[in-house]
Amino acid sequence: MTDATANTMKVKLKIKRFDPAESGGKTWWQDYEVDVHPDSTVLDSLIEVREQNDGTLALRCACRASICGSCGMKVNGS
Questions:
Q1: In whole angstroms, what is the distance from residue 18 CA to residue 5 CA?
Q2: What is the domain extent for residue 8?
Q3: What are the per-10-residue average pLDDT scores of the chain (78 residues)?
Q4: What CATH number is associated with residue 31?
Q5: Is the pTM for the entire model greater than 0.70?
């Protein structure tokens, strides 16, 4: 194990997706596994997916400090 991965854990993200170009607005669930640090946020993990696994994943964030609400999301249905 390298220093970069020594303090990480593997998490599985199940993300509800849709393609606005598709007619009917059908949605689907897509699973991703990423290695994250224990102090990472859900937003950190989503950015990791977008940058390392799937560049088609779109998300919006601004301040990254829980102030503006741009990155608000549902987690486990809540």
A1: 32
A2: 1-78
A3: 73 92 87 94 93 93 84 84
A4: 3.10.20.30
A5: yes
